[in-house]
């Protein structure tokens, strides 16, 4: 009998829409700027120090992803740094408009975030989606070796697991979904050929991961309804091939955020984030997106100012919005509504010496971000739908002083783990207003109790635990196969 405790060796191949670095080419040569995003550091940690799995990594991490450079621009350029070897996927502008902007961002993103009325169902989008997934596949065919473990990410690549499975039946394939998977009543709005292609595509993986148990359930129901396949304890048996579908709540580098509290640059940023006139500070940080509930939040804050006059002149709401997709009309319109609402609230309630809202439209460096997190009394996170939401986890992790109150939407995946937050319904302005008042009045001891409980949970399951967990499931699926006697 095969000994499954032997440490296997192989390479890790990550496939995500974007490469892990930006490629800048000028007269003096080519430079690669590695992204600092969560996924990049998580997979790095797996290949380097914190690998607790029974798998030994050979070679650098191979990363397949789209680049906006052309093939001519990259000719002769070594796309490799100490950590990653990149295999670029070239997608023409026209194809990308229909694939990424079209199918991904004008259909799947709104539909899966429960905005079906703005989802655009266009045949040319779906055709482009198929074509682009094939381009990713083509870029991989010559890269894949027999022992490679392939980990595919997100809604831009739902057809890819099965494409790879057909050609490489023995490789381990994982698929992780970063946005919500919707209930079947939403999913079934997709034309039947599209939804079949999506379910077949994803089910090419050995392990399919979502942020929450709800998304897992919705997906399993879609599998049952679309391809008639049930499951036992989260295992779907597809012609004697087992697919595990489970929840893996993504997390953050807890230690990095917690340690940052004492970093001199963060201390300075914390100091700079509030003036002596501010008795209490509330903040929010998100990308410009309709799913993030920015307008609902402003309306809730407006209701709070209307009803809780005792806080006038004493509280400031710092709302940071990161520019995103603002070339698109719908996003421009949303931005101008936000601008108007902020203006209206300021005009109605502001005083010469007090601004109820400080609104900025820009990105922030890490130190300034943690400075704001740790300077604020309240985090106001109100997405109308969010796969997970990392800002709330970053806020909790960064509060080494165990102070601060998190107000969190029940529509964020993170709400399933952070029950000690003040959980609100983002469409209910009164709920938001009352929660703000409750947060501002909360005693330090109550804040500490809630914060410590949430911190403990996040410390135990940080992003490195998440990566290890998912990866372990991928390489263990053979054992499950044996155990369930499917051979
Ligand atoms: P996003 O929709 O991008 O991610 P989120 O999880 O909140 O949303 O992550 C945003 C990241 O951007 C955070 O790490 C945050 O620190 C950073 N950020 C936000 N505003 C910033 C600012 N003004 N300046 C600098 N940095 C800023 C998608 C899904 C989420 C899911 C993640 C991970 O939509 O639901 O949590 O993937 O799976």
Automatic annotation (TrEMBL):
GO cellular component, one term: cytosol
Gene Ontology terms for molecular function: alpha,alpha-trehalose-phosphate synthase (UDP-forming) activity; trehalose-phosphatase activity
A biological-process GO annotation: trehalose biosynthetic process
Family: Belongs to the glycosyltransferase 20 family. In the C-terminal section; belongs to the trehalose phosphatase family.
Official protein name in the record: Bifunctional alpha,alpha-trehalose-phosphate synthase (UDP-forming)/trehalose-phosphatase
Species annotation: Persicitalea jodogahamensis
């Amino acid at each position: 009998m095969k000994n499954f405790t032997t440490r296997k060796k192989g390479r890790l191949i990550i496939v995500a829409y974007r490469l892990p670095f930006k490629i800048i080419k000028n007269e003096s040569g080519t430079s690669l700027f590695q992204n600092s995003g969560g996924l990049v550091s998580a997979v790095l940690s797996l290949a380097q120090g914190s690998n607790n799995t029974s798998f030994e990594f050979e070679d650098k991490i191979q990363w397949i992803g789209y680049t906006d450079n052309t093939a001519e621009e990259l000719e002769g350029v070594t796309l490799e740094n100490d950590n990653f070897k990149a295999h670029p996927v070239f997608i023409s502008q026209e194809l990308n408009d229909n694939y990424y902007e079209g199918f991904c961002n004008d259909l799947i993103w709104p539909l899966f975030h429960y905005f079906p009325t703005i989802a655009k169902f266009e045949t040319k989008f779906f055709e482009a989606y198929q074509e682009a997934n094939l381009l990713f596949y083509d870029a991989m065919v010559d890269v894949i070796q027999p022992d490679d473990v392939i980990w595919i990410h997100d809604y831009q690549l739902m057809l890819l697991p099965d494409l790879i499975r057909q050609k490489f039946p023995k490789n381990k394939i994982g698929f992780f979904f970063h946005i919500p998977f919707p209930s079947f009543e939403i999913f079934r709005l997709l034309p039947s050929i599209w939804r079949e292609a999506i379910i077949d595509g994803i089910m090419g993986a050995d392990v399919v991961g979502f942020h929450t148990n709800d998304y897992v359930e919705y997906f399993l129901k879609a599998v049952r309804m679309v391809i008639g396949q049930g499951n036992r304890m989260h295992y779907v048996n597809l012609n004697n091939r087992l697919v595990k579908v489970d929840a893996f709540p993504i997390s953050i580098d807890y230690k990095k955020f917690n340690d940052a509290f004492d970093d001199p640059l963060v201390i300075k940023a914390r100091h700079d984030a509030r003036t002596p006139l501010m008795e209490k500070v509330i903040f929010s940080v998100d990308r410009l997106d309709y799913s993030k509930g920015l307008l609902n939040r402003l309306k809730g804050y407006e209701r709070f100012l209307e009803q809780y006059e005792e806080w006038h002149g004493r509280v400031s709401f710092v709302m940071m919005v990161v520019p995103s997709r603002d070339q698109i009309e719908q996003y421009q319109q949303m931005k101008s509504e936000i601008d108007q609402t902020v203006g209206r609230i300021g005009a109605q309630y502001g005083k010469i010496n007090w601004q109820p809202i400080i609104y900025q439209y820009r990105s922030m460096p890490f130190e300034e971000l943690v400075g704001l997190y740790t300077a604020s009394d309240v985090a106001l996170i109100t997405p109308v739908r969010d796969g997970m939401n990392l800002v709330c986890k970053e806020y909790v992790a960064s509060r080494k002083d165990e102070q601060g109150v998190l107000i969190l939407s029940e529509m964020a995946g993170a709400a399933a783990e952070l029950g000690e937050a003040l959980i609100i319904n983002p469409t209910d302005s009164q709920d938001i207003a009352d929660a703000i008042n409750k947060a501002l009045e909360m005693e330090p001891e109550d804040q500490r109790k809630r914060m410590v409980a949430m911190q403990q949970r996040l410390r135990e399951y940080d992003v490195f635990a998440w990566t290890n967990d998912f990866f372990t499931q991928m390489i263990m699926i053979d054992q499950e196969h044996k155990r369930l006697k499917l051979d």
